Amino acid sequence: MDIFLASLISSVLLAAIPLVLAGMGELITEKSGVLNLGVEGMMLMGAVSSFAVTLWTGSAWLGVLTGVLVGMLAAFLFAFLVVRLLTNQVATGLALTILTTGLSALLGIKFVGQSVEGFSAVSIPVLSEIPVVGEFFKQSILAYVSIALVVFLAWWLYHTHSGLLLRAVGESPHSAHAIGFNVVKVRYAATVLGGALSGLAGAFIALVQFKAWQEGITGGVGWIAVALVVFATWHPSRLIFGALLFGLMRSMGFAVQAANASVQELLERSSAVTQSVLGFLTNSQVLNALPYIATVVILCWISRDWQKIKLNAPASLGQIYND
C-alpha cells in the first residue's frame, strides 16, 4: 500500500503542475476580460518547440525558455486579433487551437520516437526521506520552480497594485480607461503572460512527464485547464485545489500500473463480484477517461447556479473593448 500511495502522490504532482500552470495563465488572461480558448494549442507549440531545442542543444533550460517564448508568440497573435482587430474571442481561440494543433503535429513528425534527458528528480534532504509524504519532495527543479511561480502569481494578483489594475480592467474596462489606465496594454500583457504559462506547461509535459514527443502529447490538458478556471470560479486557491483533484484523476492509471503487482494480488484474494468491480475500475481506458468525465460532471454541477458564476466571473469577460 505504501508503494501505491507513494506512486500516486508522485503521479498527482506530475499531472497537476501543467494543469495549474495552464489554468493560472488562463485565469490571469480572463481576469483582464479576454477569453482565450487556444490554451491547448499554445501548450502543444510549447511542448514541440521545447523538445526540439532540447534535442538539438542538449540544454533542457534552453528548451523551456523556447517553449515559453513560443507560447508568448502564439498568445500575442491571438491578442492582436481580439484586442486590436476586435475579432470574436471564442472563434479566434478555437481557430488558434486548430492551427497550432496541426502545426505542432507537422513540426513534430521528425521527433516521434526520439527522447531527451529532460529534467530529473531532485530530492530535498530530510524531507524526501519521510515515508509516503516524502514523494512531494522528490520532484524536478522545473517542478519546484513552477510551484513557486504559481504561488507568487496567486499572491501578486490580489496583493499588488498591478494585480488590482488587471482585475479592474476585467471588471470595467471603460472605468479603468476613464481614470487613465491603458486597457489595451493591460489586456495584451495579461494574454501574453497567459501564453507564457501555457508554453511552460507544454514544456513541462515534454521534458518532465514524457521526455519524448508524440502527436497530441498534451492529451486535452489545455481544455481541462480552461474548464478548471470556471470550476475555481476565477480564484487561484480553488484553482490549485482543482488542479490537484484533476491531477489525481489523471494519475490513477499511472499509479495503478506502477503498483500492478499489488493490484493483482488484491484481485486474486477478492470475491468474484469484487474482482469484476475492481477489474472495471482499474481498466486503463476507464482510468484515462476519468478526468474528462469529471470535467463534464463538475461543470454540470457548477452550472446549476448560473447566477453565482456570473457574480464571480470578470464582468467584461469575452466582451470587445474599443478605445
From TrEMBL:
Record's subcellular location: Cell membrane
Membrane topology listed for this record: Multi-pass membrane protein
Keyword Transmembrane applies: yes
GO CC aspect terms: plasma membrane
GO molecular function: transmembrane transporter activity
Keyword Hydrolase set for record: no
InterPro entries per UniProt: ABC_transp_permease (IPR001851)
Transmembrane stretches, start-end: 60-83, 90-109, 141-158, 188-210, 216-234, 239-260, 280-302
Domain of life, per lineage: Bacteria
Keywords recorded for this protein, A-Z: Cell membrane, Membrane, Transmembrane, Transmembrane helix
A Pfam family matched in the record: BPD_transp_2
Protein name per Swiss-Prot or TrEMBL: Nucleoside ABC transporter membrane protein
Organism: Hydromonas duriensis
